[in-house]
């Protein structure tokens, strides 16, 4: 038995249902107010008492039970089972624009004994009226599908023209374009923060995804945009690998391959490519989430016996606590043998003090650097032509791949060709970027080399500053692998980064040529530092040194 059997009197009470397709229409427009006004006028003309209004500001597509306003309306009817209600809505399209859900909602109303009324349509209990109602519901669904198709086609066309049409990534906001529509522009607040994170990861200043996460969470403006102020690891991966930050757009869902965008990139395509390469191969990053000033070497020192990173912690004594490092690897002969943190850090400071090349080596390195700089500038024009030629070759390859896609009907072949097109698009974009900037330095050579030289003269000065960020910088720029330590023997020979290796080689050659000078020009005592087994250089950036280095010259 349905609830309709309990109703025998003429309904005197009414509820109104209003709906717009988005929250912006409810806040910026007057759609809900206009609908409510029209429905109230209809209720007044029929002598109904309006007892409640239920608004919705979401799309009509999908299950009506996902609309908060409609759910509240049905619950209201359930809570008042013995009252007669008329449900008034402005238009059939406001009720539902999906035929299946329209008919389901109609049955839900009938089961609750509610009578539906609409100022623009007369509901009658006749076959003809029911047929027209169903046709109008189907027409609403057709219009919705057609509108959706047109919107998707326009969005795809915009992406093909180089415009990003999806949600603006953090660091960007949308702004009206002079040519029409909207275009991404850097967010004046979040943009510089995201740029600093991307540049820092590419240069090595932020040596891991964890450090990028820590940096972003330390920025109040960025952290405020994340749940509970915590940036999730997945968000870091998406941020680092998103080509939109390099001024490019794409849309895999519509088959639109990577291409230059109309918006300004926060970083260059070259920097973005370097980030992708770092993500693919991994990075050496002597740091971890819980690294603090108390255990700055944690994560950077490994056991000389087993090669596993040492752990660190405090042990309680009778009157105070003591900080120690030790190996926790099962089966290692050094397991649980504690080393005082202060002793290890003092030995590490002594190790850094030994990394001081002589003035002669520094002057020689400076002369070599300037000679290389001048030669690179002379070859810049030739490289521009080479990059332009590479871009043309990539474009020709793309056209050939497109022709093969047109001729192919195999889905797997088409998918493989699309991946190759995407790779060629990246190659072309990067080549054009190199050709555009002319491979010219962004800052004067003297400034770049000055910062690098100050670090190379005495890295221990940065370490003794006591700043956590500067100490991390020293660890990443000085050593290419984890330091190895054995109790009773101290630090074992560990591979240095490329600049210090060069100084070692120059010192050895100088010793062979002039033995008398070797004693004064050798950079470090024999046996303490060894060259890495591989001759391949590991890239380290010194152009990101903080401004605090600027005062080091006076202390040397």
Walkthrough of the structure:
With 556 residues, the protein is an alpha/beta fold. It has four domains: 3-147, 3-Layer(aba) Sandwich (Rossmann fold), CATH 3.40.50; 172-281, Putative Large Serine Recombinase, Chain B, Domain 2 (Hect, E3 ligase catalytic domain fold, Alpha-Beta Complex), CATH 3.90.1750.20; 293-356 and 458-555, no CATH class; 361-446. Helices cover 49% and strands 12% of the residues. It has a four-stranded parallel β-sheet with strand order 2-1-3-4, with helices on both faces. It has a three-stranded mixed β-sheet with strand order 9-13-14, with helices on one face. Strand 13 and strand 14 form a beta hairpin. The longest helix is centred in the first third of the chain and has 34 residues, at 127-160. The protein is elongated and about 110 Å long.
């Amino acid at each position: 038995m349905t609830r309709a059997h309990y109703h025998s009197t003429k309904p005197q009470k009414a509820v109104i249902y209003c709906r717009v397709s988005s929250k912006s229409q409810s806040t910026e427009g007057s759609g809900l107010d206009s609908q409510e006004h029209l429905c109230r006028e209809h209720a007044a003309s029929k002598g109904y008492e309006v007892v409640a209004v239920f608004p919705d500001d979401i799309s009509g597509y999908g299950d009506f039970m996902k609309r908060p306003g409609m759910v509240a309306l049905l619950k209201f009817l359930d809570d008042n089972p013995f009252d007669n209600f008329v449900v008034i809505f402005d238009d059939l399209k406001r009720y539902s624009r999906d035929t299946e859900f329209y008919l389901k909602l109609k049955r839900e109303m009938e089961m609750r004994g509610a009578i539906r009324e609409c100022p623009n349509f007369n509901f009658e209990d006749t076959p003809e009226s029911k047929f027209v109602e169903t046709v109008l519901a189907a027409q609403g669904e057709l219009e919705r599908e057609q509108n959706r198709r047109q919107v998707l086609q326009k969005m795809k066309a915009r992406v093909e023209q180089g415009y990003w049409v999806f949600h603006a990534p953090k660091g960007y906001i949308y702004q009206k374009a002079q040519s029409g529509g909207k275009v991404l522009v850097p967010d004046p607040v979040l943009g510089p923060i995201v740029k600093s994170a991307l540049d820092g990861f590419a240069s090595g200043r932020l040596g891991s995804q964890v450090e990028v996460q820590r940096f972003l969470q330390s920025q109040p403006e960025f952290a405020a945009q994340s749940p509970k102020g915590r940036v999730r690891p997945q968000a870091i991966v998406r941020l680092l690998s998103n080509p939109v930050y390099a001024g490019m757009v794409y849309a895999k869902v519509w088959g639109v391959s990577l291409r230059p965008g109309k918006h300004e990139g926060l970083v260059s395509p070259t920097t973005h490519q370097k980030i992708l390469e770092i993500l693919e191969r991994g990075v050496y990053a002597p740091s971890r989430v819980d690294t603090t000033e108390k255990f700055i070497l944690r994560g950077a020192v490994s056991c000389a016996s087993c090669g596993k990173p040492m752990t660190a912690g405090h042990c309680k004594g009778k009157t105070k606590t003591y900080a120690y490092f030790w190996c926790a690897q099962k089966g290692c002969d050094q397991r649980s043998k504690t080393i005082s943190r202060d002793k290890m850090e003092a030995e590490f400071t002594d190790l850094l003090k030994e990394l001081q090349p002589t003035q002669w080596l520094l002057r020689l390195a400076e002369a070599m650097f300037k000679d290389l700089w001048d030669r690179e500038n002379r070859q810049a024009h030739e490289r521009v032509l080479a990059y332009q030629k590479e871009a043309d070759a990539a474009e020709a390859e793309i056209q050939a791949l497109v022709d093969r896609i047109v001729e192919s009907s195999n889905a797997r072949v088409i998918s493989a060709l699309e991946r190759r097109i995407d790779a060629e698009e990246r190659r072309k974009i990067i080549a054009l970027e190199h050709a555009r900037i002319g491979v010219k330095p962004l800052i004067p050579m003297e400034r770049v080399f000055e910062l690098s030289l100050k670090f190379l003269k005495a890295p221990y000065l940065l370490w003794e500053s006591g700043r956590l960020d500067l100490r991390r910088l020293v660890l990443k720029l000085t050593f290419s692998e984890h330091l190895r330590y054995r109790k009773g023997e101290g630090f074992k020979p560990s591979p240095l980064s490329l600049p210090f290796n060069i100084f070692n080689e120059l010192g050895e050659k100088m010793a062979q040529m002039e033995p008398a000078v070797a004693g004064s020009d050798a950079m470090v005592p024999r046996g303490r530092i060894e060259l890495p087994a591989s001759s391949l250089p590991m890239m380290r950036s010194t152009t990101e040194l903080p401004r605090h280095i600027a005062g080091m010259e006076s202390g040397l």
